[in-house]
Amino acid sequence: MQAEVSILNKQLFRHVEVPGWKLKWDWSGDEVIWSMVGAEALQQGNCTRIKSKVLPHSCKKSPEIVDLLLGAPFNLQTTNCCKAGVLSSMKQDPTKYGATFRMSVGKSYTGSNIGYLIPKNFNLGLPGYSCGVPHEVQPSRFRSGNGRRWTEALMSWNVTCTYSQFAASTSPKCCVSMSAFYNETIVPCPWCSCGCQGSQGTQCVKDDKASSLLKLHGEEEGVTSALRCTIHMCPIRVHWHVKVSYKDYWRVRMTVNNFNYAKNYSQWSLVVQHPNLRSLVQTYSFNYIPLNQYGPINDTGMFWGIQYYNDMLLQSGDKGNVQTELLFHKDSDMFTFSNGWAFPRKISFNGDECVMPSPDEYPRLPNGSRSPHPIVRPYMYLLLSFLTLILLIQ
Asked: What's the whole-model pTM score?
């Protein structure tokens, strides 16, 4: 029996990172995989029961299938294969969110048709993902011949896998800090946002020399991360800075810092929730697309890097950051700088929600001031008072 398997990442903004998917299932009978293109089984398994001159590709009861690497032989490739298991999100790159492979499945003793037993216990081999029970759907259709004829699969099954951030990791992966031009206070990420220094599985590195030694010996010692020592101990920090206020516009600088000495982030993405995103006029050096629009409501958007420019967030160091500036139009019906309105409600990095500061700690406007249009410095108030006093004396 010939079978075709497609893996589709239908998440809007979370992609599958390196090392990629590793699909696993349990056969319901005595099936084996005789051949495969577009992917490969990690283990052939014990094939001593096979009475054939040609051994199957895999005799495992629970095969583990991985994608082929880039540059695989042409005769082993299929459409949408050979990306090392990495899948983009649907919004970020609609051409690379799927993977497909084909296999020939048969009984272990003859290789003949096995009937239509549905495999069970599917697993993507990715932290945080859990898969449901396969269920039968409308058979897939294929074009054949000169393209006018349609053929149908004998049976088609769907398996839905869902993601849980808590199941993937008990600690967050990013945090948010804030600042504004009208307040000298910089609100840092909350203390121990992603863990504390010296916690289990976290290596705290204080300088570049120590990090270089860790890169050489980290794998041998089983170290999975090498984070710069910070109060928050997060691999990623997103800083939101309210930069300037004009008469009809206001500007924000958003910076993403990588504090991990041992990891680059390719095809990174940010999802920001802010009430003024519907009035976003221009984004510099990032791609942007709105999400979850309901009529006039548009408060959530996705940002990601420009290909070959800043789509790779490098390891911690001088180049371990990317940033953009956002220009917003002032909507007179809702615009204000008071009560933390200028700051985001929620930020996610690569699909994982970041730890936000407490609303009580947001940068505040100076006492007695209103939303500036544009800002008026305190010394200007003194100057105006002095001129008024002179006029009164005269």
From this structure: 0.81
Backbone φ and ψ for 332, nearest 5 degrees, come out as -60, -25
pLDDT in tens, 124-181: 999 999 999 999 999 888 887 777 888 888 889 999 999 999 999 888 999 999 999 9
Phi-psi region of 206 (alpha: psi -120 to 50; beta: other; left: phi over 0): alpha
Q: Are strands 352-353 and 265-266 parallel, antiparallel or unpaired?
A: unpaired
Domain parsing of the chain, residue ranges? 2-166, 171-196+232-376
72 Cβ neighbours under 8 A, 6+ residues apart? 81, 82
Give me 219's structure tokens. Answer: 């794998």
CATH top-level class for 171-196+232-376? mainly beta
Neighbours of 185 (CB within 10 A): 12
Give me the phi and psi of 45, to 5 degrees please: 80, -175
CATH topology of domain 2-166: Immunoglobulin-like (2.60.40)
Residue 250, φ and ψ in degrees, nearest 5: -140, 155
CA-wise closest residue to 235 among 200, 265, 269, 208: 265
Q: Collapsing DSSP states into helix, strand and coil, what is residue 23? A: strand
φ, ψ at 39 (rounded to 5°): -165, 180
d(CA 234, CA 321): 14
